[in-house]
Amino acid sequence: MLSTSIFTATANSTLELLAPTRCVVCEKPGQLLCDECQSKLPWITQRWACPNCGAPYGKLVCSECMDKKKRPVQWESRAVICAMGFKGPPARLILTLKDGYELRLAPIIAAAILCSLEEASAWRARDGTSRFDSSKIDGVSFIPATAEAYARRGFDHMELVAQSFCKLTGLPLYDVLIRPHAKDQRLLTSAQRQINLKGSIACTAPVNQSNILLLDDVVTTGASIREATRVLCAAGVHSVTVGALARVW
């Protein structure tokens, strides 16, 4: 209805006057991410990134996906593509979306992931094919929030990012993963993360022979995306490519 549209527009204008939009990094008024802060984003150059774990500068020899005996460990996904390093602006983007309830950041994060995927398409995965080819992706899934986090926030931030990503690309959303038992990962060590996630992710629907793009916010040890990839493959998925906003290394 026209009256509803007028009310919504008026309410939004009033809210903007009372609490103007500010950059989440520097707090300059005007944009959620101002032009200056955009220019300082720590993008990962995909040419030199590790195709196995997404770490910067790991294309030839990557110390981030080796075991304790310095032997390379192949992750279950066909490629991991991370847009940026975690420190600084990317951390603020993620935390402000998750814990600051600034839901308007979801499309910005989705667009950043898409940019990195498009750049990575020019470079090869471990199997010799393109790290990302949208024509070979059947659907988009995401690492879900824990039940505890969902109850606390009232939303799943990666679901919002995945929905925005699907709007940008036209790909269908495969909302098939749940994490009913896992605890928050942020304060856990690498070993504790592995234990915490073992058996904690489940697939709720058949996804036979699909090629899935799995989205996450941050890749740290890779425990979440590796467990999710194992679960998806056990459910019949043909291949999993991972896209994330940030990489900790």
UniProtKB/TrEMBL annotation:
Signal peptide: none annotated. InterPro entries: ComF/GntX_DNA_util-trans (IPR051910), DZR_2 (IPR044005), PRTase-like (IPR029057), PRTase_dom (IPR000836). Residues 15-66 form the Double zinc ribbon domain. Keywords: Glycosyltransferase, Transferase. It comes from the Bacteria. It holds the Pfam family DZR_2. One of its GO terms (molecular function) is glycosyltransferase activity. Belongs to the ComF/GntX family. This is Amidophosphoribosyltransferase-like protein. It comes from Lancefieldella parvula (strain ATCC 33793 / DSM 20469 / CCUG 32760 / JCM 10300 / KCTC 3663 / VPI 0546 / 1246) (Atopobium parvulum).
